[in-house]
TrEMBL record:
Superkingdom as given in the UniProt entry: Bacteria
Swiss-Prot/TrEMBL keywords: Cell membrane, Membrane, Transmembrane, Transmembrane helix
Subcellular compartments: Cell membrane
Full protein name: LptF/LptG family permease
Alphabetized Pfam families for the sequence: LptF_LptG
Species whose genome carries this gene: Candidatus Sulfurimonas marisnigri
The UniProt record lists the keyword Transcription regulation: no
């Protein structure tokens, strides 16, 4: 218990320092590159920097956990604390457990934050501020299918949960049956509510004896059950920065309509599975670290460990991005690498637990 508390304390301390340093670096570097484009008020600039900081946390938190483990292990070696713990009867597994437990708990908390906030959309909000001087810009010319209808929104405001310039095209036997035209719709009680609309109906048989096109006025219409504004914005704009709720709702809805859900599945995999490469990599790296400065140049080893961690993280991040853009399936780009790392780490764990 003494070793667990001591190691956990230093691990969390180094994690906080490294994460803060990486956040300041990324945000500062981004600000220097975008300062000419940020012709906005001071309060919007502050919001922009905060969203960029959230994006940096989302991107760099896993890497910070690995760097913190390397730094903590170097501290234990240089101060001879590691040798002292081994002398007191602690095994390698006992020293490893604080890193695995703390990193796993932080990752679980990190995933939980995605469930209760728009953490995943921080970079999107920041880019909207830079381009449009507002953190949530309207989506224009949104055209999509829903069941047997084609829907067009001239303008949609996800934050206000409203849309303008609505056209709903209904088909029957591959022939246009009617067109609903409305100036505005509001999302309320899981429906898009239209107060007043014109319904243009085409006769089944167009000839000289038919009455022609009929236009009627309808009121209090409800369409698109369950299609929330944020879901529409994310799915049909091709974005991949879903929150957990949006991703799950989008997956269930698109699956019920037999629409391809590869992107949504990749997003879900990235949220729930991708971060767990951290404890796996921690286990793998841990057992390669020497126990004393007499056995190896610690500075060179720590540098090599950091470079190796960056390379693994870069490969995993690239594969996840390829999965998000449907270049490769999410099962291959996200799940398979994490499973491989898991089995390698379990092999290492079992090997050294049997030898102690």
């Amino acid at each position: 218990m003494l070793a667990f508390k001591y190691i956990s304390f230093h691990y969390i301390k180094y994690f906080a320092i490294i994460l803060l340093a990486l956040i300041l670096f990324l945000v500062g570097f981004d600000y220097m590159g975008s300062v000419d484009k940020l012709n906005i008020s001071a309060n919007l600039l502050l919001i922009y920097l905060v969203y960029k900081a959230f994006y940096a946390i989302d991107l760099l938190l896993p890497l910070s956990l690995i760097f913190a483990m390397i730094s903590t292990k170097m501290l234990l070696i240089r101060s001879n604390s590691l040798v002292s713990f081994y002398s007191l009867g602690y095994s390698r597994i006992d020293i490893l457990k604080p890193f695995v437990v703390v990193s796993t708990l932080i990752i679980v908390a990190f995933i939980s934050i995605h469930a209760v906030s728009n953490f995943a959309r921080a970079n999107e909000f920041a880019n909207n501020i830079r381009k449009n001087a507002q953190y949530l810009s309207p989506t224009r010319d949104l055209f999509f299918t829903y069941k047997d209808k084609f829907i067009y929104f001239s303008k949609m405001l996800p934050l206000q949960e409203s849309a303008e310039g609505i056209r709903v095209f209904s088909f029957n036997n591959n022939s246009l049956k009617e067109v609903l035209v409305a100036s505005k719709a509001m999302y309320r009680d899981k429906f898009w509510n239209i107060d007043k609309a014109d319904v243009i109906t085409k006769p089944d048989n167009v000839n000289f004896d038919s009455l022609g096109i009929k236009v009627t006025e309808s009121e209090n219409l409800k369409i698109l059950k369950g299609f929330r504004p944020k879901m529409l914005d994310q799915v049909y704009e091709g974005k991949v920065n879903f929150t957990i709720k949006d991703a799950i709702d989008a997956y269930m809805l698109l699956r019920s309509q037999n629409i391809n859900t590869d992107v949504i599945k990749s997003v879900i995999y990235k949220i729930f599975i991708y971060p767990f490469f951290v404890p796996c990599l921690i286990v793998i790296i841990f057992f390669f670290v020497p126990i004393s400065v007499r056995f190896l140049n610690v500075s060179i080893f720590s540098f090599a460990a950091i470079i190796a961690s960056l390379m693994v993280w870069a490969i995993l991040f690239t594969l996840s991005e390829l999965s998000n853009h449907k270049t490769i399936p999410g099962e291959i780009g996200i799940i398979a690498p994490i499973v491989i790392l898991f089995f390698v780490s379990m092999r290492q764990w079992k090997k050294y637990s049997l030898s102690t």
